[in-house]
Amino acid sequence: MNKKSVLGLILFSCVVIASMFLGTMIMIRQGSQLDYNQNQEEATREEIHLDQTDKDNPDNKPTGLANEEKLLGADSSDVDTVSDTEELAFNDLDTTKEPSPQPTEPPSDELPANQDGSPEDDIDENESEDGVDDSVTDSFNANPDDLSDDNQEDSQTEDALSDNLVRLPDMQLIYNCNDVDYMKYVPEMIYDSKIEVALDITNPDIDIEARSAILFDLETRRVLYYKDPIVAVFPASTAKLLTALVTLDLCMEEEEVVVGDELDLVASDSTLAGLRKGQVLSIRNLIEGMLVPSGNDAAYVIAAYVGRKSLNDDNAGLDLALPEFIRLMNKKAQSLGTINSCFKTPDGYDAIGQYTTAYDMGMIGMAAAENETIRQVCNKTSARNIFVDGKDVTWYTTNSLIKKNSGNYYSNCIGLKTGTSEMSGRCLISLGKKDGREVISVIMDSNSSGRWSDSIKLLNYGLGL
Predict the structure, then answer these.
(1) Domains in the chain, number
(2) By CB count within 10 A, which of 28, 43, 106, 212 is most buried?
């Protein structure tokens, strides 16, 4: 092969190699550019999406289920729609529904009060309970900004926010405790050093039937006797002592109150003071109607009025006024030294998440005994009241210990309050007095006869009899 042929072959080889190298580089650049363009396109799409989100949600608020408390307090012009999930939550928490069928005859030893306040032997609350679904939806504590516009439907109307259809998420009444695993809503009780010191006594041997009980010296506030005082129990109408304390903290006895739609929230099997919408009563009338015949209707009228007064809004709906009153109840209870109580209803009617202890009810009972108005009212066997509007009624006590014609009369008892429900059993907080000494006995979850005999045993011991 001559010299020219060799040089030509070398040159051809170089051209081929250069062409292959150049082709490879071009392919690499095109691949990189393709990836870059794809990334740029995705980034652009993300920016567009975020921009659209910012336009839909200018405050950059998270989406989700709206806070029910905010919705309940909103005006219908502000809240036009509610999602399917929210509507379900409202329905689950609706306390205005009709209760499940109840037995036509009350327990033989304790009859419900007549609506006109006429006397019955051993009248008491007779509050049974409502079946509430175990999967109660609790959106009361949801984020107030968690409202998703995408899922809203045109189902929220002015009617749904009215008092007639009020939904009160903190007042889930229980009409039948067999339908509700209510204990799963009760936390473990706290046994702190203060309680430990208070119960560090030589506990006397007193045979009582109640599940839980305690006896206090009113002057020294020392515990004189106890039986399982830090177990969860249910207050029933003994909670009305707390309702009275809250009311008298904020109101004068002569203040006038008009009975309203709050009566629609009273459970159908409640004991009543016989109030009617449109009647005008004084606070003192209502206190007597609540504590003497144990009127649940009086408790609700009080709660609505005091809740509005606390909110400084006479026109506040029940959806705001009632929760406000419940807040005041729990605040007052805590100020009295309770640490194992949660109150959900102004009348003590059984409700999801409501509980207390004998010890805590002793704290409340002592405060009630130190209030002159409550002390006077709770010592009445009958109470004649003339309402502001002229209505004349007479109510009769549910407390057999202070009724001279009852077989359970105890001359040294001067009050205070009974309580009965399916969950609470028979309860009684009693104030005993002899020779200047005063004691408070608390009987929780006893039976029909036991609450009287248990109380007498404790009062006798406390008064040195």
Answers:
(1) 1
(2) 212
Residue 49: helix, strand or coil by DSSP? helix
| Rounded distance between C-alpha atoms, residue 376 and residue 368, angstroms | 11
Evaluate whether 201 touches 215 at the Cβ level (below 8 Å). Answer: no
Which residues are paired to 253 by β-bridges? none
In a domain, 313, yes or no: yes
Query: Cα 133–139–140 angle (5° rounding)?
Result: 105
pLDDT digits (tens, 9 = 90+) for 41-97: 434 444 434 344 343 444 433 333 223 223 223 333 333 333 333 333 323 333 333
Question: Taken in order 66, 71, 75, 81, is the CA torsion positive or negative?
Answer: positive
3-state DSSP: the chain helix, strand, coil percent, rounded to 5? Answer: 40, 15, 45
The terminus-to-terminus CA distance of the chain in angstroms comes to 141
Secondary structure class of 3 (helix, strand, coil): helix
Q: Is residue 75 part of a domain?
A: no
φ, ψ of residue 447 in degrees (nearest 5): -115, -175
What is the per-residue pLDDT across 379-432, written as a single tens digit (0 to 9) for each? Answer: 999 999 999 999 999 999 999 999 999 999 999 999 999 999 999 999 999 999
Tell whether 269 is covered by a domain: yes
Torsion angle defined by CA atoms of residues 98, 289, 123 and 272, in that order, rounded to the nearest 10 degrees: -20
CATH code, 193: 3.40.710.10
Q: What is the largest CA-CA distance in the chain?
A: 145
The verdict on residue 360 lying in a domain is yes
